[in-house]
Write a structure and sequence with these properties.
four-stranded antiparallel beta sheet, Helicase, Ruva Protein, domain 3, 2 domains
Length: 261
Amino acid sequence: MLGRRMVSVRVGRDRTARHNASPSEVVNRLSGRKVEKVGRHGKFLVFELDEGYTMVAHLGMSGRFAITASGEEMSPHTHFVTTLDDGSEVRFIDPRTFGFVAAYDEDEIASSGLSRLGPDAWDNPPGATELRTALEKRTAPIKALLLDQGPVAGLGNIYADEALFLAKIHPLAPGGSLDGSKLADLLSAVRQVLATAIESGGTTLNDLAYLLPDGQAGDNLDSLHVYGRDGEPCRVCSTEVQRVVVRARSTHFCPGCQADA
């Protein structure tokens, strides 16, 4: 896609374009644009285009992009298609429709959600001192703060639970209560969890909501220590894994390994 021009653009579902005034605004802003740079910050894919425009995409719970030949059979739940100047198509497939594709001008991108993201958890992680400063005086549970994307960007529900387990931090511990040593452990755990997930192609659960771009399932499910294992024995200490809800998100932890809240 890099260096190619979007000859045509189609948006098949209004919800996919919900961060713009209308689907037609996305179509009009993207059609004919050349892709000059492709990047990522946290969970957002960022496509820098010519004439100051930016396409931003978020995969949500189930989204994926696929590059196909023109005329290839359309997969179900394909909500965005752009045909490139080499004849190939880039398609956004999103069964649950939590994802989106947006087209921003220079002023809009500066005030978009990207502007409030913290350092990227994989490409540009904060140091323990930087993270402690970001969490200073924060009384919210550390699990909620990790999902907030402000202190550090890129962690979702599964990997936040797994990183907290490896760092032996209770998910309800107030963010501001964690000292530099604990935060260093957390950052190390984040790196370990993400590295394992990337190597395994991500985590595909039984609902098959997440798939790789080629439609195959990721193999990281068996590497999970706590997520989705409530009621089962901890693989480290045999204590029963528990589930609580933190800011409307299921949160899994081991009361034995993560004792202090």
